[in-house]
């Protein structure tokens, strides 16, 4: 006798609620079929469901996301870095208090030793015919950020080794819910062949038909709910083993929409508008924005960043502001709409020659015109770098590129051997956008404040009085 087992999943939704009605509509259809046929199924989320770039997630600090998961009938979820490091300790501690599903994250620990009641390392589920499935969840160890918020995230490989013996003994099938990213998923598959399925996320990779490393099936459904994932496991009762593993990621574009979810989202948006409707300040005239120029509001924001961090100089990209501020009352909702990014202030120490390379790179067209996706940035393009405490003289070359001719920091020529404290967005500590910042040994992150919190202060203290 063979039993088919179904796992349906989402990963890295990032509060792209425009795709959620299709996802829920599809799940509802699949659930109806499975229940009619007496087949076992589970709904799973792999993290980064919450993204505070959306006003619903911002206003309700992720609680609406959890309720939407409840309403859809999810059974399991793991924690993404957007849940873990964009909420302050108390908000994360209570995020899943009302969850009807189990939150599995075996490597998250509160530094005060008090763990949330909802946090579990592993869980087990049994199919209609008695097949026992063990689930474990892990999240990416961004401890430079987690530690500042009162959490620590243990090494995922050490934690996997701790729990795998128990899972192997207690379960017929082992499923790993991974918010680690594709590289770690592949390495875990190589090291631990006893894992049957890895449902992945974090790096937004898409496996349309699954991928195998040895006998471990890896699957992931991209990002933003544009795809939805399905795993089908076939268990042979006589042989007491899996005889087939399949994984598919399907586009949600033409899936049927669930009308109840659409209505819930409208209600949540109205509530978010009310919660974010408090007036921050009142402007006597509009404030223009521009991604390729130094506007008044961007200059004032960078000045605030420099003062707030105690830096020698500061730099922010103009693409952080997505629209202009109109004359009249400015609400928190306006600030969130214009600066939606979950980006924190950061202070790095750079030697003068490294700072010069950063400044040079920031003036290239390859940098200013880059259509950046990720690293906390939720805008369109990076835009021109705006400075405070640093004065940069440039000239135009024949090919249209801008050449840095001369740099001063606080009125003195840039000293190539001197160390400078440079304030910027934590975006540039990731990847290869500005390598000198990414590999700087001395980094200080400021949390839980976002750049938009500094923008609100700037509007209140430096702009409204002008």
UniProtKB/TrEMBL annotation:
SUPFAM superfamilies: 5'-nucleotidase (syn. UDP-sugar hydrolase), C-terminal domain, Metallo-dependent phosphatases. Residues 292-427 form the 5'-Nucleotidase C-terminal domain. Residues 10-205 form the Calcineurin-like phosphoesterase domain. InterPro entries: 5'-Nucleotdase_C, 5'-Nucleotdase_C_sf, 5_nucleotidase/apyrase, Calcineurin-like_PHP, Metallo-depent_PP-like, Pesterase_YunD. The keyword Magnesium does not apply. GO terms for molecular function: hydrolase activity; nucleotide binding. Keywords: Hydrolase, Nucleotide-binding, Signal. Pfam families: 5_nucleotid_C (PF02872), Metallophos (PF00149). GO terms for biological process: nucleotide catabolic process. Belongs to the 5'-nucleotidase family. PANTHER family: 5'-NUCLEOTIDASE (PTHR11575:SF24), 5'-NUCLEOTIDASE-RELATED (PTHR11575). This is 2',3'-cyclic-nucleotide 2'-phosphodiesterase/5'-or 3'-nucleotidase, 5'-nucleotidase family.
């Amino acid at each position: 006798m063979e039993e088919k087992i179904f796992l349906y999943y989402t990963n890295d939704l990032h509060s792209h609620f425009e795709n959620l009605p299709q996802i829920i509509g599809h799940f509802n259809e699949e659930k109806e079929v499975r229940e009619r046929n007496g087949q076992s199924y589970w709904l799973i989320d792999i993290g980064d469901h919450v993204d505070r770039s959306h006003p619903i997630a911002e206003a309700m600090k992720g609680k609406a996301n959890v309720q939407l998961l409840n309403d859809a009938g999810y059974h399991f979820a793991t924690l993404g870095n957007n849940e873990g490091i964009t909420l302050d300790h108390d908000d994360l501690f209570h995020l899943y208090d009302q969850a009807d599903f189990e939150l599995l994250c075996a490597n998250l620990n509160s530094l005060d030793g008090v763990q949330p009641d909802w946090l579990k390392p592993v869980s087990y589920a049994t199919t209609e015919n008695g097949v026992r499935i063990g689930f474990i969840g892990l999240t990416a160890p961004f401890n430079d950020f987690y530690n500042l918020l009162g959490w620590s995230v243990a090494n995922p490989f050490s934690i996997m080794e701790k729990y795998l013996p128990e899972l192997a003994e207690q379960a017929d099938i082992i499923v790993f819910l991974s918010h680690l990213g594709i590289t770690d998923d592949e390495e875990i598959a190589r090291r631990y062949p006893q894992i049957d399925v890895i449902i992945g996320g974090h790096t937004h990779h898409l496996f349309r038909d699954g991928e195998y490393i040895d006998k471990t099936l890896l699957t992931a459904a991209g990002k933003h709910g544009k795809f939805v994932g399905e795993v089908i496991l076939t268990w042979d009762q006589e042989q007491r083993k899996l005889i087939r593993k399949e994984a598919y990621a399907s586009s949600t574009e033409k899936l049927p929409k669930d009308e109840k979810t659409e209505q819930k989202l409208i209600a949540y948006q109205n509530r978010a508008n009310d919660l974010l409707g408090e007036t921050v300040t009142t402007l006597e005239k509009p404030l223009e924005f521009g991604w390729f120029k130094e506007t008044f509001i961007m200059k004032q924001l960078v000045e605030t960043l420099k003062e707030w961090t105690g830096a020698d100089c500061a730099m922010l990209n103009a693409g952080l502001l997505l629209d202009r501020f109109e004359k009249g009352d400015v609400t928190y909702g306006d600030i969130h709409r214009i600066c939606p990014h979950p980006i924190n202030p950061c202070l790095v120490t750079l030697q003068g020659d490294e700072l010069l390379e950063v400044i040079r790179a920031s003036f290239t067209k390859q940098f200013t015109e880059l259509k950046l996706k990720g690293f906390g940035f939720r805008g369109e393009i990076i835009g021109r770098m705006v400075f405070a405490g640093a004065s940069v003289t440039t000239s135009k070359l024949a090919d249209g590129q801008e050449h840095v001719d001369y740099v001063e920091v606080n009125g003195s020529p840039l000293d190539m051997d001197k160390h400078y404290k440079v304030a910027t967005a934590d975006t540039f500590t990731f990847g290869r956008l500005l390598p000198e910042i990414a590999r700087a040994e001395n980094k200080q992150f400021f949390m839980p404040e976002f750049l938009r919190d500094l923008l609100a202060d700037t509007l209140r203290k430096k702009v409204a009085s002008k």
